[in-house]
Write a structure and sequence with these properties.
29% of the residues lie in helices and 41% in strands. By secondary structure, it is of the alpha+beta class.
Amino acid sequence: MVLWSRTYNTRGKPDWSHIFPYYHPDIVFQDSIQRLKGIEDFTAMCNRLTRRCKELRMDILNVAQHANVIIMDWKMTMSFRRSPTTPIYGSTRLTLHEDGRIIEQRDYYDLWGDIFDGVPGFRQLYRWFMRTFFG
């Protein structure tokens, strides 16, 4: 997980270039927003995020591995041009190909909940809506 700690600076934009060789050319990436196939689409997505963020930092909180699956819990703090710094909490499941490279990455997080928690007044409305309609 040292690779990920070097990816995110304590200040400024991330640099993923050193981890791309650890990804299989047929990588499948999925998160709450998108599903991508192939290393070209994956690197393009990482580059878009770098351009959009003024600052992005990730703190790895826990790591576990069983066979060819690695699970990481994290806190990602992002800052965009016209918005306050926003922490997002989530987990990543990495599946390793038989050659040792990452063939699948699935990120799990509540993007809107973490963002809306930082908006005064809207947090309570959003949480009420989620409890009322989803559980």
